[in-house]
Design brief:
- This is ComF family protein.
- InterPro entries: ComF/GntX_DNA_util-trans, PRTase-like, PRTase_dom.
- Belongs to the ComF/GntX family.
- The chain has helices spanning about 15-20, 30-35, 60-65, 85-95, 105-115, 130-135, 140-145, 165, 200-210, and strands at about 75-80, 120-125, 155-160, 180, 190-195, 220-225.
- It is an alpha/beta fold.
- The protein has two domains: about 1-35, no CATH class; about 35-225, Rossmann fold (3-Layer(aba) Sandwich).
- A four-stranded parallel β-sheet has the order 1-6-5-2, with helices on both faces. A two-stranded antiparallel ribbon has the order 3-4.
- Helix 9 (about 200-210) links the parallel strand 5 (about 190-195) and strand 6 (about 220-225).
- The longest helix is centred in the C-terminal third of the chain and has 12 residues, at about 200-210.
- It is globular, with a radius of gyration of 18 Å.
- About 35% of the residues are buried.
- The model is unreliable at about 20-25 (pLDDT under 50).
- Bound molecules: zinc ion (2 copies).
- One zinc ion binds next to helix 2.
Length: about 220
C-alpha cells in the first residue's frame, strides 16, 4: 500500500489493527495527512474563514448587503485550509487528471453530507463544456462518486466564461452569471459541492440561479477554503 500523495510505502510500520481500522480509510501516510490542516478553530459562521473569534467576516457582511446575492447562500462549510499541500493535491486531481486522488476525501464528504442526504438535493458545481473536454471529468463529481454519494448533476449548466470576465472575477457583478438552471425546483433545499471556496462568487452565483429556479435553503460544502 502506497501513499497516494507522496507514493511512500505505508505498510511497513503499521500493525494489523491500523490496517483494518484506520489505514484502509486513509489513502495518505501520516506525514502527508498532517500537511492537510482542518479548519476547526473559530471562524466565520457563514463561510468558514478562519478568524480569531467566532462571528461573521467582512466579506460575508458585504454579501449580506448585496441586493442580488444576499439571500442566495445560507452558509458554506469548508473542510481544509487551502495551503500548499492542498493546492498541489487539487492541482493533480484537476489539471493532471489524477483520478485516483478523488477518493482521498471520501470520509470527510460522507460525514459532512450525511445530515443532508435525506431532505436536500446534493449537486456539484458544474464545469463548462470546454473545461470538461479539457479535463475529461468534473473533479467535484469525481470526489462524490469516489465517496459513493448520490448526487444530481442536472440542476445547473455552466457556460464558458469569456477571458475578460475571468480576469475580473473578483468583481462580483462584472461578467454574466455563467450558470443557468436546467429544471425548476419546488422549495427543496440544495447542497452545492465544490472543490474550493475562493472569493465565494462562483458558489453564490450558482446559488442565486438555483434560488431563482425555486430552490429552498442553499448551503455549500467545499474541500478547501
Ligand atoms: Zn505520503
Ligand atoms: Zn465569511
Amino acid at each position: 500500500m502506497r501513499c497516494l500523495y507522496c507514493n511512500g510505502v505505508m505498510l511497513e510500520e503499521i500493525g494489523w489493527t491500523d490496517l483494518f481500522f484506520k489505514r484502509v480509510e486513509d489513502p495518505f501516510c501520516d506525514v502527508c495527512r498532517a500537511e492537510l490542516i482542518r479548519l476547526e478553530g473559530p471562524g466565520c459562521t457563514v463561510c468558514s474563514r478562519g478568524m480569531e473569534t467566532e462571528g461573521i467576516c467582512s466579506d460575508c457582511n458585504s454579501w449580506a448587503e448585496d441586493p442580488v446575492f444576499q439571500d442566495a447562500l445560507i452558509s458554506n462549510h469548508s473542510i481544509y485550509a487551502y495551503n500548499p499541500a492542498l493546492k498541489e493535491l487539487i492541482k493533480r486531481l484537476k489539471y493532471n487528471g489524477d483520478y485516483a486522488l478523488a477518493g482521498c476525501f471520501r470520509k470527510e464528504l460522507t460525514d459532512l453530507l450525511k445530515p443532508f442526504k435525506k431532505e436536500a438535493i446534493l449537486t456539484p458545481v458544474p464545469v463548462s463544456a470546454d473545461r470538461l473536454k479539457e479535463r475529461g471529468f468534473n473533479q467535484t463529481e469525481a470526489l462524490l462518486e469516489c465517496a459513493g454519494i448520490k448526487y444530481e448533476h442536472l440542476l445547473l449548466r455552466r457556460n464558458g466564461e469569456a477571458a475578460q470576465a475571468k480576469k475580473l472575477k473578483r468583481d462580483r457583478h462584472r461578467g454574466e452569471n455563467p450558470f443557468a438552471a436546467i429544471r425548476a425546483l419546488d422549495g427543496e433545499p440544495v447542497v452545492l459541492i465544490d472543490d474550493l471556496y475562493t472569493t465565494g462568487t462562483t458558489i453564490r452565483r450558482a446559488a442565486q440561479v438555483l434560488k431563482e429556479s425555486g430552490a429552498g435553503e442553499i448551503r455549500s460544502i467545499t474541500i478547501g477554503r
